[in-house]
Design a protein that fits this description.
This protein is α/β, with parallel strands linked by helices and 324 residues long. It contains 9 helices and 10 strands. A 10-stranded mixed sheet has the order 2-1-10-9-8-7-5-6-4-3, sandwiched between helices.
Length: 324
């Protein structure tokens, strides 16, 4: 597995091995599908529809059990491995889907959530938070925080809860935990952020340096999201952009990002800041991977491998380890 990714310190990535030719071809196929679905999708509603249509072409999860729950007003699905007969309420991952604050759903992320449930032998709560443009900041973060506190009120101990998310969901995951810190309330065992949007001001050098290698996200799309999400609020407000927050006391953090993403520097700069604040940070930079590659295990071998790393990180940080 090490030969397929970059393992990074917070500030500097060190290449372990090049991307394989098989991986290159798999990524080319996925990017082609992405471009086909998003052709002409310029507005938030159009991109939401295109993302939903793309994800409907992917398989759903198998060998899991699912229960719809109302997490204090937040719609969600609670998943757990079908092979397990343990009572729910032992270990859980709160998963916050990506989609630029305006798209994504339980359906778009159910395959990843289900695979994590099986790989970690834990429950996964996948939430349906409110989306733009109907709802703007801070509705998305408020819903995630409500769901996290619902878990604590319903039998899950904080040291057996991990908060995870991708893209905008990574932003929401980090901001949710920062709000728990500010309220001096119990923190999760760890946080996982996959290609998170950490800087809504879009000041990272990779916004320009990787503009030609990232066909899925760009500075223009981040700017459009910022305007719709924040309105007149400053994009450097730490309550919205975690890059500018005080990270001291934050739980252990796993970050994954593709080497060619425009969000690469969002990940590396946050990792650097968190590590300087004393946070236990694990950073993985995957060569050649496009944004949100973890959602496509049916197309990318590296999606399975990166998800396994996520699961191993989660298991290490749960207080109660799953039985062998």
């Amino acid at each position: 597995m090490a030969a397929l990714m970059l393992l990074a310190s917070a500030a500097v990535g060190r290449e372990i091995g090049p991307q394989s030719q098989v991986s290159l071809k798999q990524v080319e196929k996925l990017v082609g599908l992405w471009k086909d679905h998003f052709a002409g999708a310029d507005g938030l509603q159009q991109r939401r529809t295109a993302f939903r249509a793309l994800m409907e072409t992917t398989p759903g999860p198998t060998r899991i059990q699912v229960r719809h729950v109302d997490a204090d007003g937040v719609d969600a699905e609670l998943m757990w491995p079908a092979r397990l007969h343990h009572p729910i309420g032992q270990r859980v991952i709160l998963y916050i889907h990506g989609g630029g604050f305006s798209g994504g759903s339980i359906r778009t992320h159910s395959l990843l959530a289900g695979s994590l449930a099986k790989a970690t032998s834990s429950d996964v709560l996948l939430i349906e938070y409110r989306l733009m443009p109907e709802y703007t900041y801070p509705a998305q973060i408020n819903d995630a925080l409500t769901a996290y506190r619902w878990l604590l009120d319903n039998g899950y101990r904080s040291d057996n809860v991990i908060v995870a998310g991708d893209d905008a969901g990574g932003n929401i995951a980090i901001e949710t935990v920062l709000r728990q810190m500010q309220a001096a309330k119990p923190l999760p065992a760890a946080v996982i952020a996959l290609s998170p949007i950490t800087d809504l001001a879009a000041t990272g050098g990779s916004m320009t340096a990787n503009a030609n290698s990232d066909p899925l996200v760009g500075s223009t799309s981040i700017e459009a999201l910022r305007k719709a999400y924040l309105g007149s609020r400053s994009p450097t407000d730490p309550q919205a952009s975690p890059l500018y927050a005080d990270m001291a006391g934050f739980p252990p953090l796993l970050l994954q990002v593709g080497s060619g993403e425009v969000l690469l520097d969002d990940t590396l700069r946050l990792a650097d800041k968190a590590r300087q604040a004393g946070v236990d940070v694990t950073t993985e930079i995957w060569p050649g991977m496009p944004h949100q590659w973890q959602l496509f295990p049916s197309l990318l071998d590296d999606a399975d491998r990166s998800s396994q790393n996520i699961a191993e990180f989660a298991i290490r940080h749960f207080e109660d380890k799953p039985e062998e």
